[in-house]
Structure formats: C-alpha cells, structure tokens
Amino acid sequence: xxxxxxxxxxxxxxxIRGSDTPATALRLAxxxxxxxxxxxxMSLAAAPAADDTVVEAHGVQVLLDPASAQxxxxxxxDFVDTLTESGFTFHNxxxxxxxxxxxxxxx
Length: 107
Hints:
The protein has helices at 6-17, 66-72; strands spanning 3-4, 25-32, 38-45, 53-57, 60-64, 76-81, 86-91, 97-98, 104-106. The protein has 107 residues and is α+β, with helices and mostly antiparallel strands.
C-alpha cells in the first residue's frame, strides 16, 4: 500500500506526541489543487473513520480515506531535515508529473 520510512515515522511520532489535541494517527490524503492538479494533505487524527484503510508503519498508524488510498498506492513518505529543507517528502510512482516543490502531482 504505502511505505513510511523510519525517519518519517520518527517525525510523525514526535508530532503526535506534541499535538495540542488528542491524536493517535497520521492521516494522509489527496485533494484537488496545487500546481499540478492534486496535492498531498497530512494531518493528525484521534481515530480512524469507518471506511479508512489503516496501515501500521514503524509504530505509526497511517490512515487513508478510500479515494486517497487509490492515488497513494505505492507511495513512499520520507522526512528530510537539512540546512535548506525540512519536512515530509513523497515519492509517488503513480504521478505522471509533479511540481518543483514536490507537494503536488498529476496522475
């Protein structure tokens, strides 16, 4: 389904622990928008919805709604922290094009 690297899982655990509201999971979604047609959305969630796909990765529960699960199939989520960039990155084998920032894609 999806792959969450150890670095991404470590960052997600840190965000879940530090959340101001109760959170137990990382929600990944795709919405219309961005410069390439679709954009990645990430948020924290307290619990899965009834129709969510739940993926366990390195101790992190990742939640995907049905529509997003199709577009995120095979995606690898990583976390980079360098002098010039910090944040989650996405490698999406389903993307036919993506923008320069790596936060949006077309399928």
